[in-house]
Structure to design on (196 residues):
């Protein structure tokens, strides 16, 4: 897969079909993004030297290579004001989410050092987000376990705490950042066109 993508990137640049700043390369890991660019650069160098016997003036420098997470984060940080996210938007990583949850538990009278409880509550909230339910989509009458019931109670408080810190969480699929990012795709054509 990476060889095909690297070859395509090199082809687009070598034959002038795109300028480097017109290309967006996204991958799941930073290492994969870096490797795609490095492989394309080697292919460009080899092709230009072979075809023209001169130093390469064609380069992958200027191609935006990043992870999906990194790209979504950058777009949200640059355009989050359109969703009232504020100019100082932060994306809470797992550590920050745990820190927020343990502080909320402590305020609620639970042991602040109970990381297992905080982790389980975050997992439940994450599951609801990934299922596309959000807080309003969860039906309280179907909650059975203690964890589900506590997660339901703390969910809106957790969201308010994130917002008070100018933060959103970013989960694998349907976390806040993913949801906000996809709003751009459907509602703000000017933002999308700036990346075309």
């Amino acid at each position: 897969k990476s060889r095909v993508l690297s070859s395509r990137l090199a082809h687009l640049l070598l034959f002038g079909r795109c300028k480097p700043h017109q290309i967006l390369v996204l991958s799941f890991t930073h290492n994969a993004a870096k490797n795609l660019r490095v492989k394309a650069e080697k292919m460009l160098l080899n092709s230009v030297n072979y075809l023209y016997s001169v130093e390469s003036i064609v380069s992958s420098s200027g191609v935006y290579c990043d992870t999906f997470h990194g790209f979504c984060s950058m777009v949200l940080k640059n355009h989050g004001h359109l969703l009232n996210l504020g100019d100082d938007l932060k994306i809470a990583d797992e550590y920050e989410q745990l820190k927020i949850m343990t502080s909320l538990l402590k305020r609620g009278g639970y042991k602040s050092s109970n990381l297992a409880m905080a982790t389980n509550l975050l997992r439940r909230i994450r599951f609801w987000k990934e299922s596309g339910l959000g807080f309003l989509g969860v039906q309280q009458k179907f909650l059975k376990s203690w964890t589900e019931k506590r997660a339901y109670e703390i969910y809106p408080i957790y969201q308010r705490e994130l917002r008070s810190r100018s933060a959103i969480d970013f989960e694998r699929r349907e976390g806040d950042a993913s949801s906000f990012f996809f709003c751009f795709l459907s509602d703000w054509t000017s933002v999308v066109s700036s990346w075309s």
Summary: The CA atoms of residues 85 and 163 lie 8 Å apart. Residues 30-52 form the longest helix (23 residues). The two ends are 24 Å apart (CA to CA).
